[in-house]
Amino acid sequence: MTSLDKPELGTSTVRWRFPAVHPEGYKFAAISAGLTLLLFWLLPDLFGWLGVGVTLWVLAFFRDPVRTTPLRAGAIVAPADGLVTMIATMPPPRELIGEGALSAEPVVRVSIFMSVFDVHINRTPIGGTIARVVYISGKFLNADLDKASEENERQHILVEGRDGLRIGFTQIAGLVARRIVPFVKPGDIVAGGQRIGLIRFGSRVDVYLPAGTSPQVLLGQRTLAGETILAIAGRDERIEGVAQ
User: Fold this and answer.
1) Model confidence over 163-200: pLDDT tens digits?
2) Residue 185 φ then ψ, to 5°
3) Which of 2, 168, 201, 229 has the fewest Cβ atoms within 10 angstroms?
4) Residues 6+ apart with CB under 8 A from 35
5) Higher pLDDT, 120 or 5
6) What is the full DSSP assignment across 232-244?
7) How far apart are CA 155 and CA 88, in angstroms?
8) 203 is catalytic
9) Angle in degrees, 0-180, between the axes of helices 45-61 and 26-42, rounded to the nearest 10
10) For the chain, how long is the longest CA-to-CA vector?
């Protein structure tokens, strides 16, 4: 590559654009819009305008923005938008343990809580092959509770990179969420940061980092799915920060 081929530092060709709405949201927006028209017809206009607000919120909930995923060796990116609410050391779920999967030894788990205002499209932490997808029905406790990882409706996904790196993560339905919608199945090949599913209306995603890997995010930090680097595989370097 010659110097003429390299982009100049500080030169920007990126323009903001309004996020698209994922097709999964169209039916909910249509239902909300229909109810809004009914409210305008049957009740005072105030209720109709409240319906307009709800319809706009539904469209915003299913927004699907474009994300730029860093291409860095060993990079493990956030699978979800939201707040890092828990960083703990524990064994992976039994559904992700076994031959050709994860070890039963405790590893670092990073939990990202998605409020109803966050983008709910989830993305794969690394590129590779989807090795497992295990859905488990369950309760709908507050997804911010630690026991939600064992009692709530959830879906475990294992992805194996070309270099053999395996990352397991779990989509957990929350208090308001009522369905996990998968976009992938075992055997699918995905790029790092590719969309793999969504959880409707508030939830959590747990990511199990490889042994000997420390998170590069902090409690209280916000992440962007497909963009924020959670960790670098094999890097055991603790970071510190301050809330301000």
Assistant:
1) 999 999 999 886 655 578 889 999 999 999 999 998 87
2) -140, 165
3) 2
4) 51
5) 120
6) ETT----------
7) 20
8) yes
9) 170
10) 68
Residue with tokens 């932490």: 125
Tell me how far CA of residue 168 lies from CA of 20, 69, 84, 100, 132, in angstroms: 28, 19, 17, 12, 9
Predicted confidence at residue 144, as pLDDT, reads 54
Taking the mean position of all CA atoms in its chain, how far away is CA 219? 16
Query: Which conformational region is residue 10 in: left (phi greater than 0), alpha (psi within -120 to 50 degrees), or beta?
Result: left
Rounded Cα distance between 142 and 42, Å, is 35
Write out pLDDT tens, residues 12-31: 677 877 778 888 878 888 98
Q: Which of 79, 88, 81, 72 is nearest to 214 (CA)?
A: 88
Cα-based angle 47, 60, 215 (whole degrees, multiple of 5): 135
Selecting among 32, 111, 203, 214, the annotated active-site residue is 203
Specify whether the CB–CB gap between 75 and 91 falls below 8 A. no
